[in-house]
């Protein structure tokens, strides 16, 4: 079944699907604008972390074939499980209309994550789905997410984790794109079962060579984190040379994370 999925995806990816309109097409935005997430990746995800921990609709932000390797140091959030130093690797592909990826390792247990996302220009929306499997543990967990971009300056995101187990928690967010260099985001989550909630505003500066973000999570309900993480989160992404992207993140899924991405552009 997976081989069939991969064949169909690659077949669609090989066609030049384009959206036309008078306004800027989100599928044409540079990948360098999505190396790291703003807030916590609900309305401004990165191109890779939709595989685990962020809005899976963000996978559509991929516009090339990529191999990403992360070095992780610290605890694994939100359960704060100690792990020390460990690595993870992701294979990502996309053309701005469709995006997909698979990732292994990088969590407290041997794991495999995969996801897919697709943009529907006619309704200004992107839909994503991701699956998370810990070997020896059943069932797999499924997350779903949506990005809605009705105007150039506004992007709205929504994410529901573990939809095959319960619908107790969800996250939403809105991003205001002030211009091509700056944007501001507010992400928020809520867990009805345990009465948990975090509000996380953030800002981003970016150009075609560097992206820098900072956000701070304010816990407004409960004493633990549900989907979003309280406290400071920062990130920086750099375009070192054309095929190489480097990122550093603090206070996200792990205390420290250094990422190196090697990409092959599929189209000009």
Q: What is the CATH architecture assignment?
A: Beta Barrel
Query: How would a crystallographer describe the biggest sheet?
Result: 14 strands, antiparallel, barrel
Number of DSSP strand runs:
14
Q: Report the span from N to C terminus.
A: 32 Å
SS field, number of helical segments: 1
What fraction of residues sit in β-strands?
A: over 45%
Structural class, from helix and strand content? Answer: mainly beta
What's the helix-strand series?
A: HEEEEEEEEEEEEEE
Total number of distinct structural domains:
1
Strand order of the largest sheet: 1-2-3-4-5-6-7-8-9-10-11-12-13-14
Q: By CATH's scheme, which homologous superfamily applies?
A: Outer membrane protein transport protein (OMPP1/FadL/TodX)
Helix content: under 10%
Tag the structure with descriptive keywords.
14-stranded antiparallel β-barrel; mainly beta; 14 strands; 268 residues; 1 helix; Porin
Notes on the protein architecture:
The protein has 268 residues and is mainly β. The chain has one domain (2-14, 30-265): Outer membrane protein transport protein (OMPP1/FadL/TodX) (Porin), CATH 2.40.160.60. It is built from one helix and 14 strands. It has one helix at 2-13; strands spanning 64-76, 81-94, 98-105, 111-120, 125-134, 141-151, 154-160, 169-177, 182-191, 196-206, 210-221, 231-241, 244-250, 254-265. It has a 14-stranded antiparallel β-barrel. A hairpin with a 5-residue loop joins strand 3 and strand 4 (111-120).
